[in-house]
Amino acid sequence: MPGPLDGLVILDLSRILAGPTCTQLLGDLGAEVLKIENLKGDDTRHWGPPFALDETGRPTDLSAYFMSSNRNKKSVAVDLADPEMQKTLRDLAGRADVVIENFKPGGLRKYGLDHATLCAAYPGLVYCSISGFGQTGPNRDKPGYDLMAQGFGGIMSITGEAGREPMKVGVGVADVVCGLYAATGILAALRHRDATGEGQHIDLALVDATMSWLVNQGLNYLTTGVSPARAGNAHPNIVPYQVFATADGHVIVAVGNDGQFARFCDYLGQPGWAGDPAFATNPARLANRDTLVPMIAGALAGRTMRDVIDGLEARRVPVGPVNTVQQALESDQAQARGMTITLPAPQTATGEVRLIGNPLRFSRTPVSYRSAPPSVGADTEAVLGPLKDGA
Fold this sequence. Notes:
This protein is an alpha/beta fold and 391 residues long. The protein folds into two domains: 9-213 and 332-388, Rossmann fold; 241-324, formyl-coa transferase, domain 3, CATH 3.30.1540.10. The protein contains 16 helices and 13 strands. The radius of gyration is 25 Å and the shape is elongated. The model has no long low-confidence stretch (mean pLDDT 96).
């Protein structure tokens, strides 16, 4: 069945993670994605181990990192400095609905592949630029990587334990969220294009996207003028809402209202806590966090994870385990929801590759997994050959 974006052509000049996250999503939804790479390939092809292996057991150019965001794409390897290839890519842009790139601002101008040149030549083109700090502002020319965006954007200052060094999130979440914003922006611009015939330029910055998901912590600052501090797994506005140790692992207890707190206290065998004015309401629990949390921790420490989870679920108190990545991806829930998929490996590799699935579930136009992440240049001739032949 055709996907919701079937028929759209994406000229993908991006690399690393933010842009590829966006274009993988668009590819899953049915778009044809033409991934333009230099002759050595996307930098992340070499970010390993681990790598997919060839039939002799040697590493291929398919690192796990690269494969995480590059399925459903055709790889076209080119020398961008070649004037003839620049012309070919401009012609290819004329056949595309969308161009996406993450070069430094102005970096594609010398090749005639910048947004000003291509949008003037093709007025219906949607052109999305992703950079560290955006196309404007005092930092526009500085490079941008996920870790730097997390640092500049404020998220590291509130991640980690109090009194310890700031921590990044365990994956490149600034890149990933930026890629999701890019996909949303592209779809909105395509709707405008379809209604008016008018394309446009989308200017998206890693740092801007990072600041956007400070959400309640950002609003805590804007409302009070006080910058939030690191508090480990504790929530700045709700108590108890954090990780607790049990006898054989860790659980998350997420008490969102006073009724849930009363039922939580019943499970702990401490019904009196729910009636204590120091703990009866969430504002009171926030004010007395340093007293209450150690009491809860002591009450849970001798119980097993299974006992805590079963006991609180029976009382309709939100609770869950802290899974390892293996436990999460191999769980019955992940399998039931199709959150891991297996595809035949590209020709340079052997066997199959396992990938993380797309979380979108459509009732009429499902996502599709048409091809594994490609080897570098695997589709160069198939894509560029017809252009050379004048087709």
